[in-house]
Amino acid sequence: MSCEANMLVTHRIGHRPVRAAAATITLAAAIMLAGAAGVSAAPSTGSSGSSDSGSSSGSGTGSGGSGSSIPRSKPCNQSTQSGGEGVTDTLHHLGTSGPTSFVLAYETYRIPDQIEVFYQGSLVHNTGYIGDDINQGTGSVVVALPSGTATSVLVRVTGPGGTDWEYTVNCPTS
């Protein structure tokens, strides 16, 4: 709501009802967008953040655990790179619905990070915290998706201070 519109409504009905209504409308819009993308029930952490050196479509997020609660969006086969600590949610468009599978390739370097994959709001894969001085968290895994209607997965990376990571959601081959 613009400042002028906010002032006009404030004079007529007061601050609190307008702010509550605006927050409700914003939340409803976010839920509708997430539902349309197939991530209707992914758990919320209250923070997201990363600066991504790859190109993306959709909304970006800030770094350090603050930013938009709507995840940025990317096609499959495009690398996602870390901007640092915090939680980073990215919606990856696969182009097909489940059942299917795809390869998640990752590099978490020397500081352990956790990578979780959600499909239609359900956790379908969790790497646990991976990465250390010995293997530097280099690896890949085949993520199997159950039957469903969504054509996207939500990938959530959680990392502590000083972290750096990258991963790629490869497009399904089937």
UniProtKB/TrEMBL annotation:
Protein keywords: Signal
Location of the region described as Disordered in the Swiss-Prot/TrEMBL record: 42-93
Extent of Gly residues compositional bias: 57-67
Domain of life, per lineage: Bacteria
Residues spanning the signal sequence: 1-41
Compositional bias annotation for Low complexity: 42-56
Record-given protein name: Uncharacterized protein
Source organism per UniProt: Gordonia paraffinivorans NBRC 108238
